[in-house]
Amino acid sequence: MIKDFHYFALPIEVYFGVGESNRIKTILQEKGFTSVLVITTPEQEEDGVKLAQQLGSLVCDVYPKAVMHVPVEVANKAIEVAIEKKADCCLALGGGSTIGLAKAIALKTDLPIVAIPTTYAGSEMTTVYGLTENKIKTTGKDLKVLPKVVIYDPELSLTLPATISASSGMNAMAHAIEALYAKDKNPIISMLAIEAVKSLSQALPQIVKNPDDLTARKQATYGAWLAGICLGSVGMAIHHKICHTLGGTFDLPHAQAHAITLAYSIHYNRNADIEAMDRLGDALGVSNREHVGLAIYHLNQSLNIPLALKDIGLPEQGPSEVARIVCDNPYYNPRDYDYEELLDLLSKAYQGLPPVEDK
């Protein structure tokens, strides 16, 4: 039986396909942009410069200073540059860090965003923005940070190392999985979420096996796009609260933090929304809800993703502090927050142990 629901459709123009990024100049011209600020991370500065050369006089500057978790001081400097250069558009080339910085600019200046994702993060499909100040990451929603145009070109992800691709893809999968038990879940988004989980779980092992497999890259990009729609359409839950704490408080790498902790978040919620977990189990080929989190743990193993939070920078006291912060200021979750249980699971995640005994 279909329940009543409210569904928000994202007003984004999407281009999807191999080679679509070659149309960027025409797309910008059609939109009437004449002073484009190209934004990248320091690691992708060379790609940003090449893109600026391709766009010629349409570009006012390249700003290669995006970093993880969008520190407020970084955002404020970027806003100053956008105003100084009289930018009329932010062109974000990269993943969540780059698109997050473009959103911070848009939030203060109302500048439109054109996004060209090169990872599977999914931020480009959402009205969600995040800023970090004094080691606390806060998030909000505002329609003006939603990109006007998103260009998905699987070719651009070919240079993304297999290990980063795997973590980024699991980050995307987290968006889809939490959409299944969101407070405002609905049949449309749940359908997209299951398709995203299936696509990513099939494509990521192929990418790890052969990073140049363009068919697998296209399938992963498709899955990430769907997962991004999920993230942008419904609320998230405990997993995202944990990861925002890991990132904002301990500056852990975003994708790896998502990838590692997803198994434990799912296990925590394994009996909270039986319908959602049964559908997730079917998508992952698991018949027992008790083993859905374990299936994600094993998938991470097969993708050569780090399994322990301590290996990506979480200090020894981290699990207890994360559990405290999460319980003190919780997001919605389909079951109550239990400090002792969370501490136990986070301690396992810290050590890289499976969320439940692996029989």
TrEMBL record:
A molecular-function term among this protein's GO annotations: alcohol dehydrogenase (NAD+) activity
InterPro entries, sorted: ADH_Fe/GldA, ADH_Fe_C, Alcohol_dehydrogenase_Fe, MAR
Pfam families in the record: ADH_Fe_C, Fe-ADH
Domain Alcohol dehydrogenase iron-type/glycerol dehydrogenase GldA: 11-154
Domain of life, per lineage: Bacteria
Every Fe-containing alcohol dehydrogenase-like C-terminal domain range: 166-350
UniProtKB keywords: NAD, Oxidoreductase
SUPFAM superfamilies: Dehydroquinate synthase-like
Family: Belongs to the iron-containing alcohol dehydrogenase family.
Record-given protein name: Maleylacetate reductase
Organism: Acinetobacter populi
